[in-house]
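Hi, does anyone understand the following?
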Amino acid sequence: MSTLTYLKSFFKDKDVASVTPTSRFCIQRVCRPIDLEKDQLIVEYGAGAGVFAKYLLPRMTPDSRLVLFETNELLFEKLKKMDDPRLLLYNESVEHVLQLLPEEFIGKTDYIISGIPFSFLDEQTRKSVLEQSVELLREGGKFLAYQTSGHLKEPLVKAFGNSKTGWEWRNIPPMTIYEARK
């Protein structure tokens, strides 16, 4: 995925928060808690052009599932080119994630990866997305996010009751990495 495509999306779409794809270092750091040796149900908010999917799919078991949400049309077109029966794609906002996903995913999701710019969301929408995420995850499931600042720690603590943070400097821009457990 070229930086040019991200730049075009960044300037045309207020919901695109980055001018470059996420670095491999950031992807590996965010995905570190995921046990890819086991069947997993993973949902990604803000999948962009699929850099996390391209990392995860070759490492996932045949019975794992990966659900991608992306609202940007240009980036969604890139996602549609990935051909894998384990993928489920939504060109929808995660504001209604519980209404969009099949019932069997609710309370059964192992991990949520999120790159959506929570700082762009109003407080009520941010709270709603995080509360829906808690409901979507199984007990012990994890919400894994990467953001350009430390603004998400307090909302995660309110929604999940916990949050661990770290940094990945080898990304443009550097990212705060979050992990919250249900």
